[in-house]
Amino acid sequence: MLKKILLLTAALLFVTAGTAAAQDAYPPAGNGATVTITRAEPGQPITIRVQVFAPGTTVDFTLFSAPVHLGSAVADANGVATLTFTVPENTAPGTHTIEATGIGADGRPLTVRQTITVVADGAGTGS
User: Fold this and answer.
1) CB-facing half-sphere around the CA of 26: CA atoms within 13 A
2) 59: DSSP letter
3) How far is it, in rounded angstroms, from Cα 26 to Cα 91?
4) What SS3 string covers 13-49?
5) pLDDT digit string (tens) for 28-77?
6) Is the Cβ–Cβ distance between 118 and 40 less than 8 Å?
7) Which residues pair with residue 99 across a beta bridge?
8) Cα separation, 63 vs 77, whole angstroms
9) What average pLDDT does this structure show over 94-106?
10) Do residues 99 and 113 touch, judged by C-beta distance below 8 A?
11) Pairing between strand 68-74 and 45-51?
12) Residue 35 pairs with which residues in a beta bridge?
């Protein structure tokens, strides 16, 4: 009887640990946002690619500090949404965050963030 209880307890711990690990992995590692450049001047184009959204969902992209809607893209069959935008001319130099908001692969609302640095005209490196 004691062996059965120990085996049942071990099995329960194994299942619980697996479930917790799966919950911690959302959004999946490595499936966030990437940009073509992280340091840009106002007026410079940037492409952002985000993967973790439900296929067919509309993803809205917003630049913060002062919110500026950059545009929207529809996630493809692999859940990837891509948008090319131009850094608004009136964007102040400094660190800014791009937020991509839509419905995640699990059906829940999801926001993914990527930072960029905006530099004064002529100071951009395009890197």
Assistant:
1) 14
2) E
3) 32
4) HHHHHHHHHHHHCCCCCCCCEEECCCEECCCCEEEEE
5) 445 589 999 999 999 999 999 999 999 999 999 999 988 999 999 999 99
6) yes
7) 62, 113
8) 25
9) 96
10) yes
11) unpaired
12) 48
CA distances from 100 to 21, 34, 82 (A): 25, 11, 10
pLDDT value, residue 121: 73
Q: Is 108 helix (H, G, I), strand (E, B) or coil?
A: coil
Print burial letters for 49-62: b (CB count within 10 Å at least 16), e (below 16). bbbbbbeebebbbe
- As a whole number of angstroms, the distance between CA 1 and CA 7 comes to 10
Which are the contacts of 104, defined by CB distance < 8 A and separation ≥ 6? Answer: 26, 27, 52, 53, 54, 110
Measured CA to CA, the distance from residue 25 to residue 31 in angstroms comes to 10
Which residue type does 46 have? Answer: I
